[in-house]
Amino acid sequence: MTFENILISKENSILTLTINRPEKLNALNKALIQEMHDAMKEIEKDNEVRVVVITGSGAKAFVAGADISEFSDFSIEEGAQLAAQGQELLFNLIENFSKPVIAAVNGFALGGGLELAMACHFRVASDNAKMGLPEVSLGVIPGYGGTQRLPQLVGKGKAMELIMTAGMLTADEAKELKLVNYVVTQEELLAHCYSIAQKIIKNSPMAIRKAIKAVNANFQYGVNGYETEIKAFGYCFGTADFKEGTTAFLEKRKAVFAGE
Ligand code: COA
After folding, report:
1. What is the pLDDT at residue 223?
2. Residue 2 has what pLDDT?
3. CATH number assigned to the domain comprising residue 156
4. Mean pLDDT (whole number) for 175-187
5. Based on the domain organization, do 115 and 86 belong to the same domain?
6. Sequence-ordered list of residues with C-beta below 8 angstroms from that of 97, at least 6 positions apart, any chain
7. How many domains, in total, are found in the chain?
8. Which residues are catalytic?
9. Is the four-CA dihedral 196, 202, 206, 208 of positive or negative sign?
10. What is the span of the domain harbouring residue 16?
């Protein structure tokens, strides 16, 4: 896979996707969203990849938002289409990805950047990171799922305040609000994500895939999460991973999962 705006590296079943437009603080333009979509679709099919880490290039930004220069003269229809396409192509794809996706927030995560981090399954931030949804300062609202995912993560009142004030959180404030799980130095950021990924990799990819689905069901309108859980739980019993996991436990050895 070769791309213009992203870098891909793979080691020990962990794939790192680096958004690479540092001169524009990795702002998300249409081409970048399409490339990320194409890359994620490929990654989903690659059985060698067990965990994905998404980060930004350079020391300054994860992603400083959607590319403002691209949409400043859009019409109502074009604006709605921008949000709909982005959500479908990238943000929902990541949220529902069948492999764990960790956001390594290495600097500014603003607007679409924070929305991207929030679409990931969880977040680790470097201590220089700054996070916020500044859209109302531009006369627009978050359009890549921010009005939905921020309240899910930090609660409605705090989300309302952050969105209305267009304020920026420090990494420590974001951790306090449970928006990020850990804050580490910038030098330690990727290593910290990889050490979590190593723990994940020991477990059944099939069970993780089902767990992601069941957890996400809690946040889907009209979906009964408990029923999704029961169905997924039952499904596991018919899988090779379940046989291997339980057999390995009883035989007092480490499980070797096929992922099915
Ligand atoms: N869209 C398009 N370009 C962006 C961008 C965005 N969201 N964020 C940064 N850039 C560009 C700048 O225009 C600048 O480009 P230039 O060198 O060609 O002029 C370059 O990235 C560097 O940014 P700059 O503003 O000079 O850096 P800074 O350190 O002074 O400020 C920020 C950093 C993040 C505070 C500032 O860039 C910013 O406020 N960005 C927009 C954040 C935002 O509102 N995002 C939500 C969009 S919906």
Report:
1. 96
2. 80
3. 3.90.226.10
4. 98
5. yes
6. 40, 44, 52, 121, 212
7. 2
8. 115, 135
9. negative
10. 6-201
pTM of the model: 0.97
Q: Which residue's entry shows tokens 């580490």?
A: 184
Rounded to the nearest angstrom, the distance between the alpha carbon of 65 and the centre of ligand 1 is 8
Hey, whose CA ends up nearest to atom 14 of ligand 1?
24
User: Sheet containing 6-11: which strands, arranged edge to edge?
Assistant: 6-11, 14-19, 51-56, 101-105, 122-126, 182-184
Q: What is the band of 240 on the pLDDT scale with cuts at 50, 70, 90?
A: very high
Q: Which residues line ligand 1 (CB under 6 A)?
A: 24-25, 27, 64-69, 108, 110-112, 134-135, 138
- Do 134 and 241 lie in one domain? The reply is no
* Average pLDDT over every residue of 43-66: 97
Residue 13 has a CB neighbour count (10 Å cut-off) of 17
Atom 1, ligand 1: residue with shortest CA distance: 67
In the chain, alpha helices (H): 30-45, 68-71, 76-86, 92-95, 112-119, 146-154, 156-165, 171-176, 189-201, 205-217, 225-236, 240-250
